[in-house]
Amino acid sequence: MKLKRVLSVVMAGAMVMGMTACGGGSSSESGGSAAASDAKSSAVESEAAGSEAGGSEAEAAGSEAPAESTGLSGTLKVAAVETAYGQDMWKEVCAAFEAANEGVTVELTIDKKLEDIISPEMKSGVFPDVIMRAVGAESGLTETFVKDNNLIDLTDVLAMNVPGESVTVGDKILPGFVENSITNPYGDGKTYLMPMFYGPCGLFYNQGLFTEKGWEVPATWDAMWELGETAKAEGIALFTYPTAGYFDAFLYALLHESMGNDKFQEALKYGEGIWDTPEAQAAFDIVEKLASYTESTTPANANDNDFRKNQQLILDNKALFMPNGNWVIGEMADAPRADGFEWGFTALPAVTDGGERASYSFFEQIWMPAGAENQDLGKAFIAFLYSDEAAGIFAEKGGAVQPITGMTDKLDGDNKLYYSIYDTGAVAVMDAFATTDPVEGITARSTFFDPINSLVTGDKTKDDWVNQIKSDSDALRAALK
What we know:
The chain is an alpha/beta fold. It has 2 domains: 4-199 and 362-402, Periplasmic binding protein-like II (D-Maltodextrin-Binding Protein, domain 2, 3-Layer(aba) Sandwich), CATH 3.40.190.10; 200-360 and 435-478, D-Maltodextrin-Binding Protein, domain 2 (3-Layer(aba) Sandwich). 39% of the residues lie in helices and 14% in strands. The protein has helices at 38-48, 56-62, 88-100, 114-123, 141-147, 155-158, 169-172, 207-213, 221-233, 247-268, 278-292, 298-301, 307-315, 327-331, 375-384, 388-398, 413-419, 444-449, 452-457, 462-478, and strands at 4-7, 73-81, 103-111, 130-132, 194-206, 237-239, 319-325, 343-346, 358-367, 427-429.
């Protein structure tokens, strides 16, 4: 096996996928999945690792790879951040690419602190050909390349056939995962960052309690308020949240539901007057009402040290719903729980009867720096990552799930429930507030998410919050890239 592994084990530091601290929610000024946490990443990956996906079916699919020479040759430099998915899956995928392309050698650099390894070389003009690093990381590596227009256009990869399969990369990727402000950061219809592993977000609850009580999961917000009154009569709060940062995924999905995609895109760019529209006000009204149904102890524990106490409210039947991603299963794996507890997961209720139900999805990205020397080989490698063979390795060896057709059929148990959410009618939302030049004292998180704690405690009114959003949006709009 020709694979050259450049591996460095770093004991300190948390794993990063483009997400900020687990209780801490998001740093949304990152311009993409600015909304997630390192610990979110670590836990979602650890939970996914328990999946039995990608076993014999994936191996069988992998046999479709062509045996004849592809004509590709040369040395490809691949750099990937090491997360809870581990190193083995990347080693095996790179080896499989080598096996399918006899003239190719892959040099793999993988590290928990990838930037510390590759940044010095990049400063001297030596770049990896392919980099697996998501937006939202503390280092801001990917955002820096986006801001400086130092990315290779990967739109043509979407038109390439997946190696060994009779489908293009673009047709195999699930809808919405390449038509968003993260993968297409310049709004020019071109894709510069390709989507990789993803994790749906929504509302988690105890299905066992709903079964016991004979309650239905609300399909609309009006039905949610009715359930809130029913639960209140039994001493159960309707809602809780780990930290206010978890309203990132929640608010993006809610705004998409209430505003529709066109106005939603305008809101993400802090459009003038957008927050005065009836559609935006409808979302603010829902958050205000939800705050009144939130378990009163939630804000006191909504911090990086105590957020699990809020998550425990669901397991103890003291609250019905909380926004989260499937990493919560791993985080609470050893926590006590009510008899008959069973995880349930749903998209947000619709704003109107029969309206859209949305679920935000965090996802990682892979891309090529403009300084890459082997661009054609790099694009061929990225296309290979969407093959059944590669997807099977990622799923089996690391528990990592890609947004491609057919993957949910290979999952079972809780993972099938979560990753199938888009197969059962939920709309996938993946955009985030636009990146701006730094504005002193203002971030998307401090503007849109953190104040929700004060809504719950009553220290702020909805009007206070909305006025702050309007004022801060004026400053952020003026600082747009």
